[in-house]
Design goal:
This protein has a two-stranded parallel sheet. α2 crosses α4 and α3 runs antiparallel to α4. The chain contains four helices and two strands. It is mainly alpha-helical and about 130 residues long.
Length: about 130
Amino acid sequence: MELRGFIRPDGPGGRHYNLIPIRSIYRIGVFSPDVIDPIKILIGNVLLFVPFGFFVPYLFKKLRSLWRVIVISVLFSLSIELYQFSFTFRVADVDDLILNTAGAIIGYGCYRIFTFIQKRVHVFKV
């Protein structure tokens, strides 16, 4: 049992978690038999939160700053990871928090581009 970097790699009931940032990303990249699986896993985690980063500021005026979107996305992603650890036998991983937050930041960037274009493009009614 390795204790360095982990509180414990095997939690109660055999549940697994990773608290070392970038460790899972590294392992996926190095130990995967082909290049497609890491791309699907890493890009999938990022793309999962792009709509979140777009729609949170779009729907809630008080949450239109990047920092608020980051905090909300970290808290939401953390709640998913805690749920996974508590109620499923999936791995709770700090790297998922990092990738999900990156996706939310990309989504926020898309929101900013959308609002920038929306302010400058005028639709003419006939």
